[in-house]
Amino acid sequence: MNRITQLLKIQYPIIQAGMIWCSGWELASAVSNAGGLGLIGSGSMTPEILREHIQKCKAATAKPFGVNIPLLFPSADEFIKMVMEENVPVVFTSAGNPAKWTKFLKEAGITVVHVIANTKFAKKCEDAGCDAIVAEGFEAGGHNGKEETTTMTLIPMVRDAVKIPVIAAGGIATGRGMLAAFSLGAEGVQIGTRFVTSVESSAHENFKNKILESKDGDTHLILKRLVPVRLIKNKFFEEVEKLEITGAPLDVLSSLLGRGRAKKGMFDGNLDEGELEIGQISGLLKEIKPAAEIVQEIIFEYNKALKELKSC
Fold first, then answer.
1. What is the per-residue pLDDT for 74?
2. Are residues 259 and 226 both part of a single domain?
3. Can you tell me the distance from the alpha carbon of 262 to that of 276, in angstroms, rounded to the nearest whole number?
4. Same domain, 262 and 167
5. Contact 102, 133 (CB under 8 A)
6. What values do phi and psi take at 288, rounded to 5?
7. Among 120, 139, 158, 298, fewest CB within 10 Å belongs to which?
8. Cβ atoms within 10 A of the Cβ of 303, count?
9. What local confidence, expressed as pLDDT, does residue 200 receive?
10. Into how many domains does the chain fold?
11. DSSP code string of the chain
């Protein structure tokens, strides 16, 4: 037991990231049932679909689960009100100011965790009353910090900057990675990429298999002038990269991204024209497994690595 397992009322300090197009109620409930904390990713949902996923998750697990809400999304305010109405126990917020909704969520009895990528916003989270923070290094998939601070550098700096519990994210997919994060001062880990390749993930099979085929160097952080995002290199990536190199205006880049590219790639499985958001750790993954097996494997690896370390 540590502060994260006590705070979130979970068995293991493992949080499944709330990823767009990949983390619906099936994945969230499977991770929660396995002893971690599953998160529904609201970023790719309408309010009606999110409510349906919350209700299905409640039916599928009696254990705590949460919802990830990107605060800059158009429906964020509606999502916040919905999680309060549905008595969701935990909310992870990201991509916005944590001060806007944290007080209201906590008054409703909801545990609030915010995702950050630097010490400045870590302190703002603490000041806003967040119960914990996710410190995400630039190895992570999807939208990312412009500073390109790695997880190994970020975690100890954030740990020294705040008193609330820190959850490490970015480049973590194994028990060895979890042990490394803990040695740097984290008390929990948020894992995205590995759970994308789970049986219960709503990602398209083409996308899952593409992840398994990827090697080190196959992902890259791009669009740093607009919204930094880590993608697998494909035809769409090359289009974006060419526009960036030639100094295309931001509205042109935004228009290219606004054509449903994330859904096309991750949910529909179009590996050429779609946006394939995934983390650097993808080069380590070789199998699609049930979420419960992934959780147990991470815990086994953690205990094995800890035992080996103590014997050195």
1. 85
2. yes
3. 7
4. no
5. no
6. -95, 125
7. 120
8. 12
9. 98
10. 2
11. --HHHHHHT-SSSEEE---TTT--HHHHHHHHHTTSBEEEEGGG--HHHHHHHHHHHHHH-SS-EEEEEETTSTTHHHHHHHHHHTT-SEEEEESS-TTTTHHHHHHTT-EEEEEESSHHHHHHHHHHT-SEEEEE-TTSSEE--TT---HHHHHHHHHHH-SS-EEEESS--SHHHHHHHHHTT-SEEEE-HHHHTBTT--S-HHHHHHHHH--TTSEEEE-TTT--EEEE-SHHHHHHHHHHHTT--HHHHHHHHTTTHHIIIIIS--TTTS--B--GGGGG----B-HHHHHHHHHHHHHHHHHHHHT-
The pTM score is 0.95
Query: Quick one: pLDDT at residue 160?
Result: 98
Residues in Cβ contact with 207 at an 8 Å cutoff, skipping those fewer than 6 apart: 196, 265, 266, 267, 269, 271, 274, 276
Q: Is 129 contained in some domain?
A: yes
> Are 130 and 247 contained in the same domain?
no
Burial call 36-52: b when 16+ CB within 10 Å, e when fewer:
bbbbbbbbbbeeeebbe
State how far the Cα of 41 lies from the Cα of 31, in Å rounded to an integer: 13
Taking every pair of Cα atoms in the chain, the longest distance, rounded to a whole number of angstroms, is 56
The answer to whether the CB of 68 falls within 8 A of the CB of 134 is: no
Residue ranges making up the domain that contains 239: 215-280
Same domain, 17 and 123: yes
Task: Assign residue 73 the CATH number of its domain.
Answer: 3.20.20.70
**Percent of the chain at pLDDT exceeding 90:** 84
Residues in the chain, pLDDT under 50: none
Query: Are 286 and 275 contained in the same domain?
Result: no
The pair of structure tokens assigned to 26 is 């099936």
Predicted pLDDT of residue 152? 96
